Amino acid sequence: MTRRITLNPRSHFLTAAVLAVLISFFFVPYFAAAEPEKNPKTDSDLSEEPLKFKGFLYLRGGQDIEEDAPSEQKNSFRNIVRLEGKWYPEKTSNKYLLASVKSDYLWFGSEPEWDDYEFNLYEGFLYYREGPLDLTFGRQIIRWGKTDDISPVDTLNAQDLREFIVPDYGDRKIPNWMVRLRLLFSAVNIEGVYIPLFEPAQFDYFGTDWAVFGHLKTDVLKSDLPAPLKEYIRNLSVNDERPTEKFENGEWGIRIYRPVAGWDVGVSYLYAWEDFPFFESFPIKNIHTNGSISYEALKKALAGAVFTDESIEVRYKRVHQAGFEFETTLGVFGLRGEFAYYDLQSFLTASLTSMRKPVYHYILGVDYSGESDWYVNLQFSHQIIADYDPDILYFEEHNTSLLGKLEKGFWDGNFRVKLEYGVFLNQEGHYLSPAVIFKYIPNLDITLGGKIFGGKPDTFFGRYNANDEIFLSLKYQF
Amino acid sequence: MITQKSGNYQVILYAALIFLFFACSGSHAAESKSISSGSQITGRELAQKVYSRENGDDAVAQMHMILIDESGKERVREFTAYRKDFVALSRQVLRFTAPSDIQGTAFLSIEKTGGETEQFLFLPSLRRSRRIVSSQKSHRFVNSDFSYEDMERRPVDSFDHRIAGEEKIDSVECLILESTPKNKANSQYSLIKSWIAKDTDIPLKADHFDEKKELLKTYRVLEVKPFQNIKTETYLVMEDAKRRTKTVLTLVKISYNTGIKDDIFTQTKLENW
Fold first, then answer.
1. How many domains does chain A have?
2. Using 50, 70 and 90 to split pLDDT, how confident is the model at B251?
3. Predicted TM-score (pTM) above 0.90
4. Contact: B132, A259; criterion CB under 8 Å
5. What's the rounded Cα separation, in Å, for the pair B81 and B92?
């Protein structure tokens, strides 16, 4: 059984430091004032309580539909509890402190069993606004872009992909330490962001159905390979070297945003680290895989392989990202879109090392709300990998897909049926997630649904085609 | 219904509920004058009086909405509404404060010249505001018995108006105003028959008829109270005659002319509260 318990010491140190700064920010003016102001400047916009708490409890159990892989985890369980406090020191919404903690337990089982527990500060930031100046400072999630569920421009926060795209997009986002300063004018908003500490995407290399190398180690141990080779595979390790924490290694970006005649448009630039690693070297040389993470596929790829005593070396690379986004309405339709250019993006190749290529990615989306509680969302995505190399796994030069959602409410919205979908047009791969949601009990959502992945094992979705599951989840908000 | 998931945005126009309480622009306040019995007044003039009732330059209100289904089951939603007039055009923000599953959801509505309205929705789970379609007038709000159209200020000249008589509602003398849309495409109703209190210009009752001239919904004001010398509806009901459901709106607290800042009515403020 694999188990990780994370209490993120770096976060705790930063949390304490930031809280000290924030507390002094709020309280020093009170102590320093020789006498109370006779005509204190106040805003009358806040009718809520100055200290508010809220949170949720989330439970989810999944059951694999079919036994279709030599090693697979037939069950999953996730429990998240998040508690958030928000404090307004004055009776205005222009200054507040928000802090939330998160307890997150994820289990896959039963054979091979794997679990992971995290308890940490989720968000903790100060919001301050004075005139056109708007500042947020602390651990937070900042959203750029306009499209749904997949957003090429929205890369400020990394994602938790330990369950791939099974959780909702918003729930996958990982807060990070950032400073955001905005200048808000009536005609244009100018936004600058600095991220001092790199936070990569969260995922696993081995040991889960969703891991980069899946259950390769377990499969090899069960196989008829010679014992020394089994031992060699079992001992494969990853040397994950991250950028050192210094000022110049921070990420920064700028975004200019303005409404124009019923259109919201924005342009952005971000100098960042890629959230996903660059596989600099793989210890087994001279292999050529097709992207399938099964033992059988790897066995074929091992013909002629050279085994070294290296680790799997992963690094993180800098990327320049330029983006454009828009949103408007046309008649009864909502329209939105994004375009992003990445000067270099890392892709895993057949040799299980990475190569970098320039990438263009745009998404155009339309949604419609029908009178009888219908909702339809359709997005077209087109990713272009420039200077394409056929050794790149899971992606072709042009990657086109349709993704979105169909949803219908019944019984005054107390019962909802929905289908989320993603279908590649250029390769045989798809993702479907049908679900029914009961909302009859106030603040409680009960969802019964499925996650279905299909396609060839060397495609983006098809590589997970053994992971189809049904699930039951409960979310209670308080 | 309101959902925290990214996507279902058809719901959210609670904001226009504000109009039920703040149904006019303060710039018209000088025109306000109650209808004296026996005075000669046309249907259009009466409609204009209702439209132009005094309601302050701005207002902040806390409200409760109770959705009552056919079996009598109740669901309560609480929100704070902000409204400010910018000359003849109005802007509103509505923020839900309860129950927990919609807390933090907010809505911004900005009237534009030419009768257009821009609407934005903020869902905490999305972490961004979203421009939404404002033209689907017959849709129900949050599964209440109010439609988007019910919540809008209806421009006076988009309807033909005539006075159809006089009648008392709970001992209050009223003029009966019949309003039919000039362009059928602009309204889900074929006829709105309103009982306008002579002393306050407040519609105390309104029957809404569908295309077949059958009664669809009935709107009733059950309580009116003065706040800062402005007569304000504090308890009202919309009943759906066909679905046999009703929605009750109660005003918990209201302040007029608070001097609320303009930046409250912006997308960035909608996202940071």
1. 1
2. very high
3. no
4. no
5. 7
- Give chain B's radius of gyration (CA, Å): 18
A48 and chain B in contact, CB less than 8 A: yes
Q: What are the CA-CA distances from residue B193 to residues A32, B39, B45, B50, B144 (Å)?
A: 63, 20, 16, 14, 21
The alpha-carbon gap from A17 to the nearest alpha carbon of chain B, in Å, equals: 23
Quote the domain boundaries for residue A222: 2-32+48-477
Question: Are A47 and B1 in contact (CB < 8 Å)?
Answer: no
User: What is the model's pLDDT at position B167?
Assistant: 95
| CATH class as words, domain B13-271 | mainly beta
Closest CB from A148, A334, A445 relative to B133:
A334
> Looking at chain A, which residue has its C-alpha nearest residue B83?
A45
| E strand segments, chain B | 58-68, 74-86, 89-98, 106-111, 117-123, 128-132, 159-169, 172-181, 191-197, 203-209, 215-227, 230-240, 245-256
Report the gap between the CA of B201 and the closest CA in chain A (Å): 29
A264: in domain: yes
> What ranges do the domains of chain B cover?
13-271
CB of B100 within 8 Å of a chain A CB? The answer is: yes
Q: Does A227 touch chain B (CB under 8 A)?
A: no
pLDDT at B150: 80
Q: What is the CATH classification number for the domain harbouring A81?
A: 2.40.160.10
Q: Which of A63-77, A119-133, A165-179, A333-347 has the lowest mean pLDDT?
A: A63-77
Contact present, A407 and A420 (Cβ < 8 Å)? no
Tokens of A203: 């995922």
Say if CB A349 and CB A281 are below 8 A apart.
no
Cross-chain Cβ contact A334/B273 below 8 Å: no
pLDDT digits (tens, 9 = 90+) for A122-136: 999 999 999 899 999
Stretch A223-250: mean pLDDT, rounded? Answer: 89
Cα–Cα dist B76/A318, whole Å: 51
Residues 6 or more apart in contact with residue B31 via CB below 8 angstroms: B48, B49, B52
The 10s digit of each residue's pLDDT in A51-91 is 999 999 999 999 999 887 778 899 999 999 999 999 999 88
For A96, B39, B249, B265, the CA distances from A45, given in Å and listed in that order, are 13, 42, 22, 11
Confidence check: pLDDT of A367 > 50: yes
Give CA–CA dist B203/B219, Å, rounded.
Answer: 9
Across the interface, whether the CB atoms of A47 and B134 are under 8 A apart is answered no
- Check if B74 contacts A (Cβ < 8 Å): no
Report if residue A43 sits inside a domain.
no
> Å from B49 to nearest chain A CA?
30
A93, A332, A445 member nearest B133 (Cβ): A332
Asked if the C-beta of A343 comes within 8 angstroms of chain B's C-beta atoms, the answer is: no
User: B126 falls in which pLDDT band (50, 70, 90)?
Assistant: confident
**Cβ-based contacts under 8 A for chains A and B:** 134
Residue A39 within any structural domain of the chain: no
ipTM of the complex, rounded to two decimals = 0.83
